[in-house]
């Protein structure tokens, strides 16, 4: 019985374990199924998320919000315009891929693009048309456009270029046409009003360096203006090249007229061209920024705007130059242009480079022609037709000195070799003229006085403006020194000629060892010693007074007197040396010689002090 019970329990336990094992197998199979389902769901989720990401971006790019259709403020319009520009570009990209959704929004985008283009066109054209109002300062609306440039205006024009080139071209053409007329009208009016404040009396073909002073003094001739500089003198005219005045405010013609002010041509030229430089630089930068051009395209656009104005300037310059005989005015204008060209180069604005070259091509030949006319006028001068002879500086040499110093001083900053060459030719003709004038004097003494006075005057005038090492200064210094030394010999020859001749002859014989040939000249030596001792003071005094009367420059006269007295002491020292030779040691009259040191002390008393 116990065995049956155990067998039944065993059988029951086996059944239970077998059932449990079957349940575990079923659970394992379900777990595997759930795992497979989980992996499948995860993959589907990722795929849906990826699709959602792409589709949401596509939808966002394609959807046109209401705010884009009806922007309220200017800032909102700018923001929505940027957004619209992105949608237009995105739609173009999708159209290449043949995306069907693109066709759903194409009409709306096109409509908004037309609306945006219309609004931008109206805005910019309104700004440009505002330039045309009478008495408008065009720089104010232009500056308004520039104020928008970093945020709005540049993007406006960029939007037009990208989406409606015909409208962009229309705006560009309207701007070019408007500004071309404005600049032309402004500068034509300004230039005309400037000419009304120019000096009434200007140089003509008779105002040349070699023309007599008596010319052009007829009954109906106009009186000279009080403030008018001569055409050969720089005076204060050179101030127009100083940095303060060169880039100073432009002239206001009506203000000058109210004050009855008159100006030389180069001052008007500076004001006119500084206005051109200032406006030209501003316009070039504006065109480059607003129309987004560079290089040759920017230059071509600038010439479209400023071309008529520049042609007006060149025509006006050509008219002035053809009848101008004021070489200093022309030369100052040349150097104004050279400095303005340097300014535009420093600012990296190439727009006016060709204009500067064109102006210089007008001015340089005229300056050279006027200079050649002056050279020829001096060459043709007849000294006998210039009136009474006078040893004082001649007015023609003074003209030359003033003119040459003016040109040399102006030419120092921007050196021109052809200018130096022409000045060299002018100097040669002036030197020849001075020699021809000197030859009209009967005595060599008067000839030398005339030469020294003229060389000294020209040298002093040149040294006021030119560098000490300039060719002109060095040339006249050599001429002055040579003629001064000759004059010293001339004035010493009259009172002391016998002693000087004896010293020179004796020194020559000493060199040859033939001094004994003079041992029988005791009477002459006695006469020379006693004559010098008794008359030297009176002779020196007369010599000093004569020199000071002869020379217009006291400093120069003083220098000549000092040179003469120094030369006299040297000759007397030589006289002492000759008489100390063995041939003359036995002469009793040697005791009457003046002590050389004593003579030097006495001579110093006669040196003038100025």
Automatic annotation (TrEMBL):
Q: List the GO molecular function terms.
A: syntaxin binding
Predominant subcellular localization, coarse grouping: Golgi
Q: Where in the cell is it found?
A: Golgi apparatus, trans-Golgi network
Q: Please name the Pfam families in this protein's record.
A: Vps52_C (PF20655), Vps52_CC (PF04129)
Q: Where is the Vps52 coiled-coil domain?
A: 11-159
Q: Which InterPro entries match?
A: Vps52, Vps52_C, Vps52_CC
- Keyword Cell division included in the entry's annotation: no
This protein's GO cellular component annotations are:
cytosol; GARP complex
**Which stretches make up the Vps52 C-terminal domain?**
177-488
Q: Keywords assigned by UniProt?
A: Golgi apparatus, Protein transport, Transport
Q: Does the keyword Transport apply?
A: yes
GO BP: endocytic recycling; Golgi to vacuole transport; lysosomal transport; protein transport; retrograde transport, endosome to Golgi
What is the similarity comment for this entry?
A: Belongs to the VPS52 family.
Question: Which PANTHER family does the UniProt record give?
Answer: SUPPRESSOR OF ACTIN MUTATIONS 2/VACUOLAR PROTEIN SORTING 52 (PTHR14190), VACUOLAR PROTEIN SORTING-ASSOCIATED PROTEIN 52 HOMOLOG (PTHR14190:SF7)
Q: Tell me what this protein is called.
A: Vacuolar protein sorting-associated protein 52 homolog
According to its UniProt entry, this protein's organism is Oncorhynchus mykiss
């Amino acid at each position: 019985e116990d065995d049956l019970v155990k067998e039944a329990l065993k059988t029951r336990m086996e059944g239970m374990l077998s059932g449990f094992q079957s349940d575990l197998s079923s659970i394992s199979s379900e777990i595997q199924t759930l795992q497979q389902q989980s992996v499948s769901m995860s993959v589907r989720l990722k795929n849906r998320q990826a699709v959602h990401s792409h589709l949401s971006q596509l939808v966002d790019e394609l959807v046109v919000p209401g705010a884009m259709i009806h922007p309220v403020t200017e800032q909102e319009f700018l923001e929505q315009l940027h957004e619209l520009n992105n949608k237009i570009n995105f739609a173009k990209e999708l159209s290449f891929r043949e995306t069907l959704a693109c066709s759903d929004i194409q009409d709306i985008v096109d409509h908004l693009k037309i609306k945006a283009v219309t609004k931008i066109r109206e805005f910019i054209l309104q700004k440009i048309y505002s330039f045309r109002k009478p008495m408008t300062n065009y720089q104010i609306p232009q500056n308004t456009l520039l104020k928008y440039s970093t945020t709005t205006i540049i993007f406006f024009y960029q939007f037009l270029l990208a989406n409606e080139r015909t409208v962009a071209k229309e705006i560009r053409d309207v701007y070019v046409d408007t500004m071309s007329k404005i600049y032309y009208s402004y500068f034509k009016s300004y230039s005309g009003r400037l000419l009304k404040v120019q000096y009434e009396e200007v140089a003509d073909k008779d105002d040349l360096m070699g023309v007599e002073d008596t010319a052009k003094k007829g009954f109906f001739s106009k009186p000279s203006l009080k403030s008018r500089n001569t055409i050969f003198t720089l005076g204060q005219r050179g101030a127009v090249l100083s940095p303060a005045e060169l880039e100073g405010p432009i002239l206001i013609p009506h203000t000058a007229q109210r004050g009855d002010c008159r100006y030389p041509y180069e001052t008007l030229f500076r004001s006119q061209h500084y206005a051109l430089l200032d406006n030209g630089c501003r316009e070039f930068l504006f065109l480059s920024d607003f129309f987004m051009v560079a290089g040759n395209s920017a230059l071509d656009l600038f010439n479209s705007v400023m071309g008529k104005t520049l042609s007006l300037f060149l025509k006006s310059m050509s008219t002035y130059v053809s009848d101008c005989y004021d070489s200093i005015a022309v030369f100052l204008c040349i150097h104004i242009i050279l400095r303005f060209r340097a300014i535009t180069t420093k600012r990296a604005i190439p727009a006016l480079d060709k204009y500067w070259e064109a102006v210089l091509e007008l001015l340089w030949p005229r300056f050279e022609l006027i200079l050649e006319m002056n050279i020829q006028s001096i060459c043709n001068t007849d000294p006998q037709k210039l009136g009474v002879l006078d040893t004082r500086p001649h007015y023609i040499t003074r003209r030359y000195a003033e003119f040459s110093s003016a040109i040399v001083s102006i030419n120092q900053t921007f050196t021109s070799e052809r200018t130096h060459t022409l000045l060299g030719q002018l100097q040669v003709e002036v030197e020849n003229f001075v020699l021809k004038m000197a030859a009209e004097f009967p005595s060599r003494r008067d000839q030398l006085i005339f030469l020294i006075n003229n060389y000294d005057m020209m040298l002093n005038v040149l040294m006021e403006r030119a560098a000490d090492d300039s060719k002109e200064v060095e040339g006249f210094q050599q001429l002055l020194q040579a003629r001064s030394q000759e004059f010293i010999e001339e004035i010493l020859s009259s009172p002391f000629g016998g002693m000087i001749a004896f010293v020179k002859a004796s020194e020559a014989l000493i060199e040859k060892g033939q001094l004994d040939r003079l041992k029988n000249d005791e009477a002459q030596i006695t006469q020379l010693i006693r004559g010098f001792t008794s008359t030297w003071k009176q002779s020196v005094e007369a010599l000093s007074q004569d020199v000071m009367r002869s020379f217009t420059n006291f400093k120069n006269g003083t220098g000549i007197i000092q040179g003469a007295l120094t030369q006299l002491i040297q000759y007397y020292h030589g006289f002492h040396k000759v008489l100390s030779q063995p041939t003359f040691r036995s002469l009793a009259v040697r005791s009457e010689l003046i002590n050389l040191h004593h003579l030097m002390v006495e001579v110093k008393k006669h040196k003038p002090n100025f």
